[in-house]
Amino acid sequence: MAGLLTREEWLATLTLAVVLGVTAGWWALALWPVPGETPEWLEIARAVCFNAGADGMPDASGWILLIGQPLGMFGFLWVVWPTPLARGLRGLASQTGGRMVLGTTALFVLAGLAGTGFRVISAAEARAPAVLPPSMPVDAHPRLNRDAAPLELIDHRGERVGVDQLRGRPAVVTFGFAHCVDICPLVVQNALRARNEVWGPDGASLVVVTLDPWRDTPARLEDIARRWGLDGPNDHLLSGSVAEVEAVLDNWKIPRNRDPRTGDVLHPSMTYLLDEDGKVAFATVGTLETVVGLGSRLEGR
Question: How far is CA 109 from CA 106, 243, 250, in A?
Fold first, then answer.
């Protein structure tokens, strides 16, 4: 088949194949879903090269780069070698082996486009704004008075925190993860504002347990805590090994479902209020007003 093409026609066709290969690798780097935890180097590469957000998808400038750069290379190739490239492709199409190569390439391109569409739709669904569910009236919440489940994890200061360390003052305990862009920041801010409104920053502890120990490792907690405004002496953002965190979440009976393709965790917006003895007084999936009301009940107001 090579003998039917001139050197220039063969070079133009080979260059087109290289451009297609580079484009495929470029798009795979930006969009290929990784099962389990995304490696840190890949998160950094996607953020630097494509301005990828928390959901792993490029922003507008990233999409312009992904689409514009291949189009620019294809356009340049067509301007420089229009006749050799056209003849080279016709030469391939005239041979059985060449037609197989062209057909396989077309199938890969179509599969890549379909996979990209699926990836974009999945990310859009994961970004869909979550809404805090309505909760029962504050007065209808039962007083639980049960022992808090075991809680032994590392906070963003590198200190091990458990229920024993929380005794002596009330505590607000809730759950979230850093890659969540809608509901988790709202839940954490509601818990923070409720704690400050009812007790003040020094009057009660605020504990946030990660739901994503694969990515919210102890080494990353300091940055996450700063982002969420957890800078008080009684604020604790907790993580640990995957096994340790999963055991704590099971102990606290937090239902969750982790999407292995995106790493996102579906979960209820649970918040617990503990009394000074470390016992669970109330549990709620309510709004800021609900948490404030339950805190006031805990204080006997």
Answer: 5, 41, 44
Helix or strand (DSSP H, E) at 275: none
Write down the pTM of the prediction.
0.59
Residue 148 domain boundaries: 138-298
Domain count, the chain: 2
Residue position matching structure tokens 């979550």: 130
237, 155 contact by CB (below 8 A):
yes
pLDDT tier at 130 (50, 70, 90 boundaries)? very low
Query: Are residue 154 and residue 269 in the same domain, yes or no?
Result: yes
Q: Single out the residue in 86, 101, 127 at which a domain terminates.
A: 127
Any alpha helices (H) in the chain, and if so which ranges?
A: 7-31, 40-50, 60-80, 82-93, 96-127, 163-166, 183-198, 221-228, 242-251, 288-298
133 falls within a domain: no
Q: Based on the domain organization, do 169 and 218 belong to the same domain?
A: yes
Angle between helices 40-50 and 60-80 (to 10 degrees): 70
Of 105, 127, 149, which one is at a domain's C-terminal end?
Answer: 127
CA distance 155 to 228: 14
Tokens of 99: 């037609």
CA distance 269 to 283: 10
Instruction: Give the three-state DSSP class for 41.
Output: helix
Residue-wise pLDDT for 20-54, tens only, equals 888 888 888 888 877 666 677 777 777 777 777 65
- The answer to the question of residue 193 being in a domain is yes
Collapsed DSSP state (helix, strand, coil) of residue 33: coil
